[in-house]
Write a structure and sequence with these properties.
The protein is of the alpha/beta class and about 300 residues long. The protein has a domain of about 210 residues: Decaprenyl diphosphate synthase-like (Undecaprenyl pyrophosphate synthetase), CATH 3.40.1180. Strands 1-7-6-2-3-5-4 form a 7-stranded parallel β-sheet, sandwiched between helices. Helix 5 packs parallel to helix 6.
Length: about 300
């Protein structure tokens, strides 16, 4: 599950999984922006199967505080550097035609448990990030959206978020979604509350509830589930992020801290993703006995 550097991956030449979702890039060959990648990024991109890109990549951006602490810097400087990574990774995603990129920017737990001074700084940083980067989003054809209990954020922050979303809403490239004041469990609670109200209003019995009904009431109802979940900083947990949606996501963990994460590292994660075989509960060609053969196997008494 952990992603190492390119030289450390023993599976580099492994075949691409047969179940790879063939999303394809957003852009045709005539409008491709691959030439805007750096030379290093183009070298990694050249190894990818471009008709087999993930449709949706979600990232747990972790390590801002540790990045700052390892350099004897204040935590806020780690957050500032992390904001720079957001824009650089988003631009690479846009250049390769990745349809959906969702970033865990600020959790519900952050809002409740972090020192108020740090939370206030993060809110100011978000406002400044949007002010300074909306034009870059326009230049890169990026549309920005948000998920989470955003109505609980300060009014001036909500106003800036709405302005950025309205400004970029007609863009047709990568959809950048920031998870703000977000928690996976709280999302499911909100979905069930909304669904319960619908059932009562329409007099629908609960036994008729389907997964599709629940999905319709999630914050992410308008987007596909993530194919690939990336976690920076080496931590082996999902931290209450997209708990419903990542049921079949491939997980890639890197020791790299988020402020050091760049577009080339996104491409390396996609390359690792393409070496996986996604089975969604089914079987691969390399398994042992099939169901038909199993009928003739003697079961030893315990």
């Amino acid at each position: 599950m952990r992603g190492a550097g390119p030289s450390k991956r023993a599976a580099r030449d492994a075949p691409i999984g047969k179940s790879c979702h063939k999303a394809g890039p957003l852009y045709s060959a005539s409008t491709s922006r691959i030439h805007e990648l750096s030379a290093e990024e183009r070298a990694v991109y050249a190894t990818l199967k471009t008709d087999c890109l993930p449709e949706h990549v979600a990232i747990i951006m972790d390590g801002n505080g540790r990045w700052a602490g390892s350099r004897s810097l204040k935590r806020f400087l780690g957050h500032q550097q992390g904001a720079k990574s957001v824009q650089l990774v988003t631009e690479t995603a846009s250049r390769i035609g990745l349809p959906w990129l969702t970033l865990y920017a600020f959790s519900l737990e952050n809002n409740l448990r972090r020192p108020r001074a740090e939370v206030n700084f993060l809110m100011r940083l978000l406002k400044i990030y949007l002010e300074n980067n909306v034009q870059r989003m326009m230049d890169n054809n990026v549309r920005i959206r948000y998920i989470g209990r955003t109505h609980e954020l300060p009014r001036e922050v909500q106003d800036k978020m709405a302005w950025a979303a309205e400004t970029t809403e007609r863009n047709t490239g990568t959809t950048l979604t920031l998870a703000l004041n977000y928690g996976g469990r709280s999302e499911i609670v909100d979905a069930f509350r909304s669904l319960a109200a619908e059932l009562a209003r329409k007099h629908i019995p609960p036994e008729r509830i389907t997964e599709a009904d629940i999905n319709r009431h999630l914050y992410t109802a308008h987007m596909p589930d993530p194919d690939l979940l990336i976690r920076t900083s080496g931590e082996m947990r999902v931290s209450n992020y997209l708990l419903w949606q990542i049921a079949y996501a491939e997980i890639y963990v890197t020791d790299r801290l988020w402020p050091d994460f760049r577009g080339i590292h996104l491409l390396e994660a996609v390359a690792d993703f393409q070496r996986r075989e996604r089975r969604f509960g089914g079987l691969s060609d390399s398994v042992g006995i099939t169901d038909e053969e199993a009928e003739h196997v003697n079961i030893a008494a315990s």
